[in-house]
């Protein structure tokens, strides 16, 4: 009887405890259980593609497979060593080294075997059905244009987060929102049950750039060749659509292929069209001429003395004497003396006014990371040399895109259109900033620059009229001043002249001058302009103005005949050593 | 008395032991085999690449158990009676052997197994039965001494002390407790003086406390257990020794009324160590729910009740050795069952005890089947004794003096 009582008591105690655990108070236990087994798995969302204006991909996400191993499991199966070694070799890994890597981490449960393997390559390994070898789906960013567009498109890091360029600027737009699903996993991390999607992945948006990849590649090739030919340190070129203000191409040198990350080169990532600041040099004479015509003090026919002049105790002279010249000749010959005299006559405010209207000193607002706005001088007291040097492009800083924007205003005969890196679908409404007549007069002067006798004959292309202005900007070297061996050769222009389609600016910085070659924008950058412009005409299907032959603008009628044909005549030092420049501009002391 | 009218020879050939006990033990074995397999497939597939690895081995042990059980059923109980002292010494021998490095085989710090080709023998499983056989022999032979004198307690205690000591040396505290409880129960049923009984209980209890305090690992288990009572999921517990129990409790909690379904346990997926051995009950609870566990416990207790009834019948008919042996075996089953399920549900600190019939393990399963066979043989002999008194005279057993 006692025995039965004891047994019954034991039975009751156990049953009471069972009921307590299983039915009455099981919530906490289930919570604890769920905490150990329920896992949220991320569903990878694809990042938006970046495409050019015609839908050609510039950056795209392709599925890849990341292989990882559970070293614990691998160590438990020594019999598969041979097959494992073969798998490592097929992945291009050193079998012995990899085995050691796994052995060193024998106690851990996760180790990357190889990240971002092409799916076909991964399949070969996975088909071996090795214990402890797992796959994880990921996406890898691929840049079809490679080094030709990296400066603009930028790049992402390994986790597909934008790091540079537009990839960074439009991160929020491009990135997808990962989804999640709830799964039950066992203790070694294997999937037991899929409980369903709790949030579906939202893919990122595509970004349509205004770039035309054909033009981009053409521009890239032309610039790269020129930079190599001149042994220049850097170079940059920008092509704008004259009608819409869209950027059709934007390239920089040096460059770097973002698809091959073994040697990252920060220099090769800098977008020198928007990030580098520089003085515009003689390309700014266009704006001085505009101010001159606007002032009413000058007409296209006004004659200006170009004899050397002393400004604030500095003697300013042109390389050769151009004699009394009109504005067109001053531009064509790029006379610093002539520009200075005009500038001094106008005063700094009239010139600043034009510079502001054509967009200098103001951020274009593309949102590109590191885009500079440049700066216009703001002296408390303007010296004569300040005013004179501004007339031929020193003493203020701009980026190349701003020069392109300013020249697009002349292409549109005085209408300023917003510059855009993204494709613009609706017709662009511009704003008149320069009188149409004055703009047309200036364009005529710019045609003179590429005409026979001008500095930039090399800018001409077959079958179309072009217009533009060269510029050679001496670089301000810290503690040393301006130096004739460190300069940027510019050419800014557009084509065709009568109905412009493209505005092109080419800048080649610090070419090698050791062999005594010392050539300026008209010789160095104008041919690159010509190469790009000719290609652009073809690519954009622009009807030829003069089929089949190279044409030159008619020779200028000037009061006195030109003294010498000197293509590099615009190469002259600025009048002053102490011209204020920002730290971002100068090259450092060699 | 219908049996009296039946032909004697036919009757002896047809009676293979108590049918309810046989059916219940068969049900337990079948149920155990299914649940042990379910609990072990994940570990089996990962460790041996064969999900039925443990199933196949258990099936083999079952076959061995059937052969041994059959042999026991066919042989008279007097063989056990006569060799009971020998069996005690065999227990000594086995328990000494297991402690010798090279013969004994250490797992998790305890030497509990003797490695044999293809099989590990767990001497404590064997010793439990042999000690019970010896105690039954002593009780039946020296019944009066036990009832009247302290010597009746001291003699067996002296003979059993080496077994207890050797078990603690392994160490196998669980087996020690089960064995002591069974022996105490047998003494109680043998009519020992209640005062001696309390005395012995006090000594054993004191000894148990001493055993706990002197062993760092046992003390640690107890402190862990006390921590568990406070909060089974505190970090100290879960990341320490309480991990196993915490996972076991989660298994029970997940089961609810009818469980997550056969084969659907998550705890067996490497969360709960020893899911197919000591903690198979937690997996049953998870997969079959409170309903399944209750069904199993009811079946188990019915089995134990039936075994008690068989033993009681023998006592009533004066076949004392058979009766005490039956009681002892029943108490072993009861102790293992109660302690194992109490450990599983967190009522007792964790110790390595198998659940009879259900846990994976050759020694355990085979000894269970041997003990069932003994119970059946006892019943057969009682049947023969009551139906054919002359065919099997009592003096052959020697109990009735």
Topology:
The complex is a heterodimer of chains A (590) and B (401).
Chain A: H1 2-24, H2 27-37, E1 38-43, E2 50-51, E3 57-69, H3 71-76, H4 81-90, H5 95-104, E4 111-117, H6 119-126, E5 133-142, H7 150-153, E6 155-156, E7 162-164, H8 165-169, H9 171-174, E8 179-185, E9 191-199, E10 207-208, H10 213-229, E11 234-241, E12 247-253, H11 285-295, E13 309-311, E14 314-316, H12 327-333, H13 336-346, H14 348-357, H15 384-391, H16 400-411, E15 415-416, E16 431-432, H17 436-450, E17 467-477, E18 481-495, E19 502-509, H18 521-524, H19 526-539
Parallel strand pairs in A: 2-10
Antiparallel strand pairs in A: 1-8, 2-3, 3-4, 3-5, 6-7, 8-9, 11-12, 11-19, 13-14, 15-16, 17-18, 18-19
Helix pairs in contact in A: 4-5, 10-19, 11-13, 11-14, 11-17, 12-17, 13-15
Chain B: H1 2-5, H2 8-14, H3 19-48, H4 53-74, H5 78-82, H6 84-97, E1 104-107, E2 110-116, E3 119-121, H7 123-141, H8 143-148, H9 151-169, H10 173-189, H11 194-214, H12 216-230, H13 235-238, H14 243-255, H15 280-316, H16 320-344, H17 362-387
Antiparallel strand pairs in B: 1-2, 2-3
């Amino acid at each position: 009887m006692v025995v039965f009582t004891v047994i019954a008591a034991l039975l009751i105690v156990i049953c009471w405890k069972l009921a307590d655990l299983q039915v009455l108070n099981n919530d906490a236990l289930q919570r604890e259980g769920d905490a150990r087994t329920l896992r949220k798995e991320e569903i990878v969302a694809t990042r938006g593609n970046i495409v050019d204006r015609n839908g050609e991909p510039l950056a795209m996400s392709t599925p890849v497979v990341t292989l990882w191993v559970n070293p614990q499991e691998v160590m438990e199966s020594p019999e598969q060593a041979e097959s494992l070694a073969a798998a490592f070799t097929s992945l291009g890994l050193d079998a012995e080294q990899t085995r050691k890597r796994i052995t060193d981490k024998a106690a851990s449960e996760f180790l990357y075997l190889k990240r971002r393997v092409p799916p076909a390559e991964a399949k070969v390994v996975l088909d071996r059905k090795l214990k402890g070898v797992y796959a994880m789906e990921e996406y890898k960013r691929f840049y079809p244009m490679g080094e030709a567009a990296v400066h603009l498109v930028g790049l992402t890091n390994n986790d597909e987060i934008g790091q540079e360029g537009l990839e960074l600027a439009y991160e929020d737009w491009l990135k997808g929102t990962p989804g999640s699903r709830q799964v039950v996993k066992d203790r070694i991390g294997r999937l037991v049950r899929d409980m369903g999607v709790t949030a579906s992945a939202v893919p990122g948006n595509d970004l349509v750039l205004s770039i035309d990849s054909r033009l981009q590649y053409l521009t890239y090739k032309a610039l790269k060749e020129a930079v190599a030919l001149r042994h220049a340190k850097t170079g940059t070129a920008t092509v704008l659509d004259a009608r819409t203000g869209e950027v059709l191409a934007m390239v920089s040198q040096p460059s770097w292929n973002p698809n091959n990350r073994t040697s990252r080169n920060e220099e090769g990532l800098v977008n020198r069209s928007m990030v580098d600041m520089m003085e515009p040099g003689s390309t700014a004479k266009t704006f001085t001429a505009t101010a001159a015509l606007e002032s009413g003090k000058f007409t296209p026919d006004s004659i200006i003395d170009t004899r050397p002049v002393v400004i604030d105790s500095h003697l300013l002279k042109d390389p050769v004497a151009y004699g009394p010249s009109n504005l067109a000749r001053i531009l064509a010959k790029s006379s610093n003396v002539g520009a200075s005299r005009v500038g001094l006559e106008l005063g700094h405010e009239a010139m600043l006014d034009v510079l502001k209207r054509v967009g200098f000193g103001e951020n274009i607002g593309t949102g590109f990371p590191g885009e500079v706005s440049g700066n216009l001088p703001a002296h408390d007291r303007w010296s004569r040399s300040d005013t004179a040097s501004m007339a031929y492009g020193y003493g203020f800083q701009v980026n190349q895109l701003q020069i392109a924007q300013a020249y697009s205003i002349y292409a549109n005969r005085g209408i300023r259109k917003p510059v855009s890196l993204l494709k613009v679908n609706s017709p662009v409404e511009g704003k008149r900033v320069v009188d149409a007549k004055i703009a047309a007069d200036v364009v005529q002067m710019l045609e003179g620059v590429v005409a026979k006798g001008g500095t930039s004959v090399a800018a001409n292309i077959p079958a179309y009229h072009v217009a533009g202005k060269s510029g050679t900007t001496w670089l301000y070297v810290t503690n040393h001043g301006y130096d004739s061996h460190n300069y940027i050769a510019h050419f800014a222009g557009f084509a065709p002249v009568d109905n412009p389609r493209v505005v092109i600016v080419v800048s080649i910085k610090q070419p090698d001058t050791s062999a005594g070659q010392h050539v300026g924008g008209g010789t160095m950058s104008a041919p690159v302009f010509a190469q790009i412009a000719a290609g652009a005409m073809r690519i954009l299907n622009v009807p030829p103005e003069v089929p089949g032959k190279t044409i030159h603008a008619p020779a200028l009628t000037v009061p006195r005949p030109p003294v010498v044909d000197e293509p590099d005549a615009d190469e002259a030092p600025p009048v002053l050593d102490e011209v204020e420049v920002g730290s971002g501009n100068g090259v450092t002391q060699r | 008395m219908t049996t009296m009218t039946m032909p004697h020879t036919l009757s002896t050939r047809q009676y293979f032991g108590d049918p309810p006990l046989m059916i219940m033990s068969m049900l337990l074995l079948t149920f155990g085999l299914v649940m042990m397999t379910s609990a072990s497939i994940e570990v089996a597939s990962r460790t041996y690449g064969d999900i039925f690895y443990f199933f196949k081995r258990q099936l083999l042990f079952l076959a061995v158990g059937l052969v041994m059980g059959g042999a026991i059923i066919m042989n008279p109980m007097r063989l056990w009676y006569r060799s009971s002292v020998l069996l005690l010494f065999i227990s000594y021998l086995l328990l000494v052997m297991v402690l010798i490095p090279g013969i004994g085989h250490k797992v998790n710090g305890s030497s509990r197994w003797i490695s044999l080709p293809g099989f590990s023998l767990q001497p404590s499983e064997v010793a439990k039965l042999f000690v019970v056989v010896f105690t039954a022999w002593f009780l039946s032979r020296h019944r009066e001494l036990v009832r009247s004198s302290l010597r009746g307690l001291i003699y067996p205690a002296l003979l059993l002390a080496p077994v207890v000591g050797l078990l603690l040396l392994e160490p196998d505290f669980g087996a020690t407790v089960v064995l002591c409880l069974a022996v105490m129960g047998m003494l109680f049923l043998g009519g020992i003086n209640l005062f001696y009984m309390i005395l012995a209980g006090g000594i054993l209890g004191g000894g148990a406390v001493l055993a706990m305090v002197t062993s760092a690992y046992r003390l640690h288990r107890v402190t862990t257990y006390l921590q568990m009572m406070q909060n089974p999921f505190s970090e100290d517990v879960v990341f320490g020794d309480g991990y196993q129990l915490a996972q076991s409790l989660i298994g029970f909690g997940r089961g609810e009324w009818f469980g997550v379904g056969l084969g659907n346990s998550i705890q067996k997926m490497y969360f709960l160590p020893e899911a197919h051995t000591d903690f198979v009950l937690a997996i049953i609870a998870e997969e079959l729910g409170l309903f399944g566990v209750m069904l199993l416990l009811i079946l188990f207790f019915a089995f134990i009740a039936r075994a008690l009834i068989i033993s009681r019948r023998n006592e009533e008919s004066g076949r004392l050795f058979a009766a005490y042996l039956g009681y002892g075996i029943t108490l072993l089953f009861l102790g293992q069952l109660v302690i194992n399920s109490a450990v599983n549900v967190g009522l007792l600190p964790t110790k390595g005890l198998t659940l009879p019939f259900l846990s994976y393990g050759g020694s355990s399963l085979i000894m269970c089947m041997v003990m069932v066979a003994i119970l059946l043989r006892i019943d057969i002999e009682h049947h023969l004794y009551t139906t054919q008194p002359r065919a099997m005279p009592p003096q052959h057993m020697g109990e009735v003096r």
